[in-house]
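Backbone-to-sequence.
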């Protein structure tokens, strides 16, 4: 194993979702200056789902024209598009255009859609590209993908996004005319100015995309990495296009790669999926778990994170978001050293993570007065719930990725497609509940009173 390849695979993975993750963490700073206000997150949710046209096209090409689509040119295109879009976003995010008599942040919405296309398409191109490297680098890639959420969050914390201080204020009591100069003490939420502008933050995101591009170029062309390639057949011109998929899936396996549940090499394939290691029922189980886990981690729970954490205070909210982002790469490192490919463990961790998610959802539903809202124990429990939720389900995602990697190139394409499908279903399910029907209520950061 090469340290250089691990670093490059991590940087490559960081570019997968860094742009959209960065957009989300910057919302508290840019929303007050835009005409959409806090409806902007709803618009972003719709734009991200519309951007799934990219993964849909790639998946259909692999389904009906297998072996004809090389993901490398596509990766170059989408990463360059991400660099350009984030760079232009830094200078035009404030600009507004009148549409239908109303002001809209059209440049920001257009660039957000382009970045959504970039990040959504990365799910069905970056993962299949990792077939060209040794299996151990896939876990490092997943760690980088986890860092794509952590790094922007840490930069936003340094920037001071969303930091609120409660300041004493007085409100004139106009209701009581009999008491002259009667005043009623209250607290006012004051948002602190950021240490650097949103423009600088978006330029940082553009620099992260540049790093991703450089890492991808080196993964393709660095001589030391070329010597490590697991499957030379893929790069030779001797294979016909129709046989490339077969060449990819017939690579020799190291002991690390062999599944815990596998038939002997001489036995008949158990299904037509990949190398035939798993039966149709097992394949369906894997993909259902994958879709469910990604729906929860990428859409359902993030949409209510502020409702579940902010009642316990801004410190609890920032701690939960940061530590949950840390838990993702930690789970990847655990999977790197302890890759347990057990269906039973996969199901147990999925149920465990779902249980933590259910607690988080319940606290969000009870907002602005969830359980133990005035106690330190309530804060500790909600932060731990977020950490364990992300930790357990991130481990499941990595293990499924490792399993499907062994089944060949097309299996990783379908892995990315199911990831996007699960995320889309989760987002579309939560959008009306949060943004249309308003089932979740947020309280005033300084003045919400709850029964003790």
């Amino acid at each position: 194993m090469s340290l250089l390849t691990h670093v490059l695979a991590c940087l490559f993975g960081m570019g997968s979702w860094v742009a959209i993750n960065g957009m989300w963490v910057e919302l508290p700073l840019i929303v007050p200056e835009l005409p959409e206000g806090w409806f902007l997150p709803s618009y972003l949710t719709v734009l991200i789902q519309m951007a799934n046209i990219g993964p849909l096209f790639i998946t259909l090409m692999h389904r009906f024209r297998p072996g004809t689509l090389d993901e490398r040119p596509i990766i170059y295109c989408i990463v360059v598009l991400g660099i350009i879009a984030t760079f232009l976003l830094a200078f035009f995010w404030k600009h507004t255009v009148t549409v239908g008599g109303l002001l809209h942040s059209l440049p920001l919405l257009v660039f957000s859609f382009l970045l959504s296309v970039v990040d959504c398409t990365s799910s069905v191109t970056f993962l299949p590209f990792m077939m060209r490297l040794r299996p151990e680098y896939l876990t490092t890639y997943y760690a980088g993908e986890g860092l794509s959420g952590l790094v922007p969050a840490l930069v936003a914390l340094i920037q001071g996004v969303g930091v609120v201080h409660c300041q004493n204020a007085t409100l004139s009591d106009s209701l009581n005319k009999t008491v002259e100069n009667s005043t009623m003490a209250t607290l006012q939420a004051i948002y602190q100015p950021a240490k650097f502008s949103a423009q600088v933050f978006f330029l940082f995101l553009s620099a992260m995309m540049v790093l991703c591009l450089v890492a991808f170029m080196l993964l393709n062309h660095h001589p030391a990495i070329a010597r490590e390639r697991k499957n030379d057949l893929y790069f030779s011109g001797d294979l016909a296009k129709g046989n490339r998929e077969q060449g990819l899936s017939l690579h020799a396996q190291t002991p690390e790669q062999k599944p815990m549940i596998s038939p002997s090499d001489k036995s008949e394939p158990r299904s037509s999926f990949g190398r035939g290691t798993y039966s149709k029922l097992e394949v369906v189980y894997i993909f259902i778990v994958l879709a469910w886990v990604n729906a929860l981690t990428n859409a359902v729970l993030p949409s209510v994170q502020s409702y579940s954490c902010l009642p316990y205070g801004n410190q609890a909210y920032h701690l939960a978001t940061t530590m949950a982002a840390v838990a993702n790469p930690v789970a990847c490192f655990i999977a790197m050293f302890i890759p347990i490919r057990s269906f039973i463990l996969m199901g147990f961790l999925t149920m465990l993570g779902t249980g933590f998610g259910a607690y988080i959802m319940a606290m969000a539903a009870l907002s602005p007065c969830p359980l133990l809202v005035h106690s330190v124990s309530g804060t500790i429990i909600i932060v731990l719930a977020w950490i364990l939720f992300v930790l357990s389900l991130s481990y499941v995602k990595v293990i499924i990725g490792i399993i499907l990697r062994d089944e060949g190139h097309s299996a990783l394409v379908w892995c990315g497609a199911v990831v996007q499908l699960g995320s889309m279903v989760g987002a579309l399910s939560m959008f009306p509940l949060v943004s249309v029907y308003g089932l979740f209520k947020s309280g005033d950061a300084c003045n919400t009173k709850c029964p003790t």
